[in-house]
Design a protein that fits this description.
alpha+beta; L-fuculose-1-phosphate Aldolase; nine-stranded mixed β-sheet; 9 strands; binds 5-S-methyl-1-O-phosphono-5-thio-D-ribulose; binds zinc ion; lyase; zinc ion binding; zinc
């Protein structure tokens, strides 16, 4: 893949972010959270650009050549490669929150099953779990942490509009599920975003267990 890097972006920065994405993706894939080329990952490079996975690549075996540049409207920059089909969901996060620098999207079995089970209720309501405090800004297990479940669609502007509507209603958002699809979460850096993803995977698994055991 021939990636031309704009002069305002240090090539070493792109390489560092691409390596960080590839490493995180390999670890998440090893956990079985990225089956069959699913999932996508990105990191902000500056106010105008993000590095993101090229569409359709095996997320367990990414190299620098599998990561490309996009602008904050989700358009490819300096390459004819095709960015993730879900790029607009990443750039929406970067546009809305200048402090957010990483977006991770995975398709684990737990995330997928939870998204279907809780779709009718429109959200997973997390309360009483100590691990809620792994989410930035959450200080107690007593708070209610809502993870919305948005209907799936192949038309990204519809998904973007659903997320915008949630945020424009003033509701807090740290992550969302897409029905029958997977989870999106984000953070200020890779470590924080991985922590969010791991905590949510654990919490969704606990909620599924509770439903199963109380059935
Ligand atoms: C392989 S099915 C999953 C895809 O449709 C999509 O949801 C996904 O997560 C990966 O798409 P991609 O375009 O590779 O970023
Ligand atoms: Zn997906």
């Amino acid at each position: 893949m021939n990636q031309i890097i704009p002069p305002t972006i240090p090539p070493a920065l792109f390489a560092e972010r691409a390596d960080a994405i590839a490493q995180a993706a390999a670890e998440l894939a090893a956990s079985g959270w990225t089956p069959a080329t699913s999932s996508n990952f990105s990191m902000r490079l500056d106010a105008e650009h993000a590095a993101i996975t090229i569409s359709g690549r095996d997320k367990g075996h990414l190299g620098r050549d599998d990561i490309m540049l996009v602008d904050m409207q989700g358009h490819a920059v300096g390459t004819s490669a095709r960015p993730s089909a879900e790029t607009e969901l990443h750039t929406q996060i970067y546009r809305r929150w200048p402090a957010m620098n990483v977006v991770l999207h995975t398709h684990s079995r737990t995330q997928s099953v939870a998204s279907r089970l809780f779709a009718k209720e429109g959200a997973v309501r997390l309360q009483g779990w100590e691990l809620q405090k792994a989410i930035a800004g959450q200080t107690t297990h007593d708070s209610e942490l809502l993870i919305p479940v948005f209907p799936n669609t192949q038309h990204m502007p519809e998904l973007v509009a659903q997320v915008d509507a949630w945020l424009d209603a003033g509701k807090p958002l740290h992550a969302y599920l897409i029905d029958g699809h997977g989870i999106y979460t984000w953070g200020r850096d890779m470590a924080e975003t991985r922590r969010h993803l791991e905590a949510l995977e654990f919490l969704l698994g606990c909620e599924l267990d509770l439903r199963r055991l109380s059935a």
